[in-house]
Amino acid sequence: MEITYTTTDCPLGRVLVAASQKGLCMVSIGKSDAALEERLMSSFPTATVKRNDRAMSKMQRAVKRRISGKDLNEKLPVDLHGTPFQVAVWKEMLRIPAGQTASYADVARNIGRPKAFRAVAQACGANPIPVVIPCHRVVASGGKLGGYTGGIEKKLYLLAAEGVHSYAE
Description:
This protein is α/β, with parallel strands linked by helices. Helices cover 34% and strands 18% of the residues. The chain has two domains: 2-67, Double Stranded RNA Binding Domain, CATH 3.30.160; 84-161, Winged helix-like DNA-binding domain superfamily/Winged helix DNA-binding domain (Arc Repressor Mutant, subunit A, Orthogonal Bundle), CATH 1.10.10.10. The chain has six helices and six strands. The relative contact order is 0.15.
């Protein structure tokens, strides 16, 4: 597998955008390029990975627009690597409209596994393409925000950028 990536600034810090020949395979937000690149390498240890800012410029711009709450319905190609359950959860998250949320229980029910809401939360945490696969739109039942791998402040930012302000304090 060959992966091409780039890094750039975004409102949440540094963002790494990586794609295989099939589509996006990782979006990661962090504080430093070194940490983001290490995460990429450890997530795809057998891949040939190369940085190419020019080749990734269109994807990078599309991801940055999403982070800013723009072009949220633009379809981007994705290359999902996970268990069948994780992939089912990630595909269901793609069905949650921008500016709306669904609970972990809703997602579990929609994939035919109504008791698997905790496993849905774990699949959200394992999402390799946050922002594009909108795990920030999945919240806990009862109106609670739930968690977010990148930190709750990032989840709040992404929801607010989409016009969801009911979770802001």
